[in-house]
Amino acid sequence: MMEIKILGTGCPSCKALFETTQQAVSELGIEAKVVKEEDMVKIMQYNVFSVPALVINEKVVSSGKKLSLEQVKNLLKK
Predict the structure, then answer these.
(1) Pairwise CA distance, residues 78 & 42, whole Å
(2) Could you give the C-alpha distances from 34 to 17, 25, 37, 62, in angstroms and in order?
(3) pLDDT, block means (10 residues), the chain with 78 residues
(4) Cα separation of 64 and 54, whole Å?
């Protein structure tokens, strides 16, 4: 099962990325656990300096960008 994390402090962009990612997972029919990580100590462990960040299976694939549904789907398919 794929593990997806949204790293962010609860800002509107972080919440939007979380919702977009859940929608992408649902539309693609992927079996995945989507987690929102808001603990700054844990976020810093990923060496991410701008949020929101998207982490797929412990690999940071996007940071500091607002992603569209299509962009998230493309990242999930890789």
Answers:
(1) 25
(2) 11, 9, 10, 15
(3) 95 95 98 96 94 97 96 95
(4) 9
